[in-house]
Design a protein that fits this description.
Layout (H helix, E strand, L loop, with lengths): L2 H17 L2 E5 L11 E6 L5 E5 L3 E5 L7 E3 L9 E7 L3 E6 L7 E5 L7 E5 L7 E6 L5 E8 L2 E7 L6 E2 L12 E2 L8 E4 L3 E5 L1 E2 L3 E5 L7 E4 L9 E8 L5 E7 L10 E4 L7 E2 L10 E4 L8 E5 L2 E5 L7 E4 L5 E5 L2 E5 L5 E4 L6
Antiparallel strand pairs: 1-30, 2-3, 3-4, 4-5, 6-7, 7-8, 8-9, 10-11, 11-12, 12-13, 14-17, 15-16, 16-18, 18-19, 20-21, 21-22, 22-23, 24-25, 25-26, 26-27, 28-29, 29-30
Length: about 350
């Protein structure tokens, strides 16, 4: 066997091992999502997951993705559901992102047969990017700045959303904002911690340890300066260890300045020693709080890390927007109705 042939076979084997991590479950034109761009995904268990996206699309599976059911939200056919949070097979919240009244929050408690419109944004300049929940009653939503101030909503009963006026929230910098790319620019962690991340003119990480009453902020070593650059997603596996991913969505194959990690609860962030292979819009730890394995996805592919985000290796080059884990599995969603399930957790 020639050396070149041997290298070619190794490349073939490696490529198929990497691609085998994902099982494609839905894509246009035959999938339940049609040609919708999916940006929201909430994996409840290895069997139950919900997804959402453009054209008022909401999907649910109860059998591990063998079948995806399309659910109808009356009056929402033109909305872009950028975030979704599910609590079991019957209860879920969805957030529509957009200017003015296009930013809305709905809830179902009967598996999508009926939906309650809980919030409609009345501020013309607001644009709600993400929401997150500590439990099924307590949640927080976050908007791009209006008059140089970020807007926040809070629910304490899972029904009514009210403006959250924190004691301390540092103002936005000129040109700074969020990215409604994957529903993970804002997360709720533990019992009271919340984090949101920004981009544009600055890449910064905001943290609250008391459910949004006060906030601190630090700079992060991710690329910024242009409206398409910054931090797109944040994840923590415990109260100390976290990961940021992002980059430039207009240059999706650029592999520098797109990941960082913290080991001190977000007080400081350091660049990944070897980052993902392009712009990444979502990141999540997988396998439980003790696991160092993480998955990052974006429109130029997906990557994995087995050392808590220090170094990354490519999985595939398919287009994804968001990822949500459930135990040692999870789902990624993306453009053109793409849904893929993680079937094999990468290992060292």
């Amino acid at each position: 066997m020639s050396r070149m042939l041997g290298l070619s076979m190794l490349f073939f084997i490696f490529s198929n091992v990497a691609l085998a991590q994902w099982e494609l479950q839905s894509t246009a034109p035959n999938g339940a999502a049609g040609d919708a761009s999916l940006r929201g995904i909430s994996a409840v268990s290895a069997k139950i997951a919900w997804a959402s996206g453009s054209k008022g699309t909401v999907l649910r599976t109860l059998d591990g993705g063998k079948h995806w059911e399309k659910l109808t939200v009356p009056g929402a056919e033109s909305l872009d559901f950028r975030d979704i949070q599910a609590f079991g097979g019957r209860t879920a919240f969805i957030l529509a992102a957009g200017p003015g009244e296009q930013s809305r929050i709905y809830k179902t408690e009967d598996g999508g047969s009926h939906w309650q419109l809980q919030f409609t944004n009345a501020e013309p300049k607001a644009f709600y990017d993400c929401f997150a929940f500590w439990d099924h009653e307590h949640g927080i939503a976050w908007s791009d700045p209006v008059n140089d101030r970020f807007l926040l909503l809070f629910t304490s009963d899972g029904s009514a959303w009210k403006p959250l006026v924190p004691d301390i929230l540092l103002p936005a910098l000129p040109g700074e904002g969020g990215f409604a790319a994957s529903g993970t620019c804002l997360i709720a962690q533990g019992k009271e911690d919340a984090w949101f991340v920004t981009g544009g003119s600055a890449a910064r990480v905001f943290h609250s340890a008391n459910r949004g009453r006060t906030w601190s902020v630090v700079k992060a070593p991710l690329v910024s300066g242009k409206p398409s650059q910054g931090i797109f997603s944040i994840a923590f596996r415990d109260n100390k260890h976290g990961i940021l991913v992002g980059g430039d969505y207009q240059d999706p194959k650029a592999a520098s300045g797109n990941a960082a990690l913290t080991e001190d609860g977000g007080e400081t962030w350091k660049p990944a020693e070897k980052g993902p292979s392009g712009y990444r819009s979502a990141v999540a730890f997988i396998g439980g709080a003790s696991s160092l394995t993480a998955i990052a996805v974006g429109t130029s592919g997906s990557d994995y890390s087995v050392d808590g985000g220090k170094t990354w290796q490519p999985l595939d080059q398919n287009e994804y927007n968001a990822f949500s884990p459930a135990g040692r599995t999870g789902w990624a969603v993306g453009p053109h109705g793409r849904i893929a399930r993680l079937t094999k957790v990468p290992a060292k």
